[in-house]
Specification:
By secondary structure, this protein is mainly α. The protein folds into two domains: about 30 residues, no CATH class; about 70 residues, no CATH class. Helices cover about 60% and strands about 0% of the residues. Helix 3 packs antiparallel against helix 4 and helix 4 runs antiparallel to helix 5. The longest helix is centred in the middle third of the chain and has 21 residues. The chain starts with 11 loop residues before the first helix and ends in a 9-residue tail after the last helix.
């Protein structure tokens, strides 16, 4: 019996750039290590999205409560992170992330009129 493999249509451009890399990523699920700044961005996105989702659903949440997801993302990433040779440390990432998360939750998000779907 033949199996069917589904790939995103948007990946086809990468197939023609480097077929071996495309095969590794899209067929063999091989992932390269990410940079710490990518992890920082993932953490900030997760924590601020949680904050905004609670606002949309009219659920009480504080910036502090939502920041737990930032810390969790930094400490337990879902992908490999290469900290060697990075210009930021884990402590830097946490400090930067908390500052940006708090600024977003306290200053940027509150004036926005968020609506659910």
């Amino acid at each position: 019996m033949q199996s069917v493999t589904t790939v995103r249509a948007s990946s086809w451009g990468a197939l023609f750039d480097c077929a071996f890399k495309w095969e590794g990523i899209h067929l063999r699920n091989i992932r390269s290590r990410s940079e710490p700044r990518a992890l920082l961005g993932t953490g900030i996105h997760a924590s601020t999205a949680t904050f905004d989702a609670a606002r949309v659903n009219r659920e009480p949440i504080s910036a502090y409560d939502a920041s737990e997801l930032l810390a969790h993302t930094l400490l337990q990433p879902e992908f490999d992170v290469d900290w060697r040779g990075s210009d930021i440390t884990m402590r830097d990432a946490e400090s930067i992330g908390l500052a940006l998360h708090t600024k977003y939750c306290n200053d940027i998000s509150p004036p926005l009129r968020l609506r659910g779907r």
